[in-house]
Write a structure and sequence with these properties.
15% strand, four-stranded parallel beta sheet, Rossmann fold, alpha/beta
Length: 218
């Protein structure tokens, strides 16, 4: 098995879920006591959050360089929003990256979902990188009107594991018509599960981990 390198801390709460999910999926896929080697570089979230995109790229490059120095063989960023920079990062490192956007798209195709409600941070919902990656595969992407409110719920509540607006988040999702909702922020699965929504659900954490493990065993 190849060693996994995770860029985490974006936020720390969701990185905890990544490691937990890696262990749980490993139990189902691998023999008893067998787990992949995992390196996690947890960045300073404040430094990333309050930088411009050039500064954020620097934060990610430092983390990836450290993981590769520790002999990580595949790299994954445990967050949707930083994938805005994925193409730029790929050009700077001779490394295999496992994309969360690709993982989500592949799950949608597997389940024969055609119309997707994309819920995430403001960047994920409004910038082109996520939507175009899905649309290039023939998928229709819908963006909720409550972009600012959802963004606030993520950054003011969920990154601190505060679920006080969980019901409001579920209400927003269920007000839209789609084949499935993409939980396109790795904090969202902390608040929303399959039983909460009236459509299919694509948990970006679970799908990303599934592809990370496949790459590790490939």
């Amino acid at each position: 098995m190849r060693r996994i390198g995770i860029v985490g801390g974006l936020s720390p709460e969701s990185t905890l879920e990544y490691y937990r999910e890696i262990i749980e999926q490993s139990k189902r896929k691998l023999p008893p006591y067998v787990y992949p080697e995992v390196l996690i570089f947890s960045v300073n979230f404040d430094r990333f959050l309050h930088s411009d995109w050039d500064g954020r790229e620097k934060v990610l490059k430092e983390a990836i360089s450290s993981l590769l120095s520790a002999r990580a063989e595949i790299i994954a960023m445990a967050s949707n929003t930083p994938h805005y920079l994925l193409d730029r990062l790929k050009k700077q490192f001779d490394a295999e990256f496992v994309s969360i956007v690709d993982a989500v798209a592949e799950k949608a195709i597997e389940e024969n979902y055609r119309t997707l409600l994309l819920v995430g941070t403001k960047t994920t919902m409004t910038e082109k990188f996520y939507r175009e990656a899905l649309e290039s595969r023939g998928l229709e992407v819908r963006i909720p009107e409550e972009v600012e409110e959802i963004h606030s719920i993520i950054f003011d509540d969920l990154v601190f594991r505060d679920l006080k607006r969980r019901e409001r988040l579920v209400e927003i999702i269920n007000s839209y018509d789609a084949d499935a909702v993409i939980l396109g922020c790795t904090e969202l699965p902390l608040a929303v599960g399959e039983k909460d929504v009236e459509m299919g659900i694509i948990d970006s954490v679970k799908e990303h981990v599934r592809r990370i493990l496949d790459a590790s065993m490939g």
